[in-house]
Amino acid sequence: MIGGACAAALAVLALGGCGTSKESWIGDKYKKDGAGSYRSSKAPPVVATEINKKFKAIDRVDDLATRGAAGGIFLRYPKLVVGVLPNGPGSRITLSTPSSGYNRYYSHVSGRWARPGSNGWTNGGIASFRGGGPGSGK
């Protein structure tokens, strides 16, 4: 009985320590500004580095040098796009699904990123599709 209780406690600790989601971590670290939008007093390169240090992105597009205030830094994850945009002296951080983020930031990322699949991207950056045929992975 004691061995079972210990195993259950270890399982809870292991599952509880799986880590924080990107959305949750960003929400805790930066000031909420609306649905999927946050603000920071720090400049975009600093904010993007903080996020990328915590959660390594598949790819990062930075067009601030070429587009200035109209540019941004865009982090691609399998199921999330994080945009870090200039906002006065600070930053505006946006969180989007892969398809919404790709469409929203198309003019910034289209030369670098493939269009996401119905299931976002793989860890290698390839479009990921969810199967749908009979018996396909179900």
UniProtKB/TrEMBL annotation:
Superkingdom per UniProt: Bacteria
Per the UniProt record, one Pfam family is DUF4247
Q: Matching InterPro entries, A to Z?
A: DUF4247
Name of the protein = DUF4247 domain-containing protein
- The organism named in the record is Actinomadura meridiana
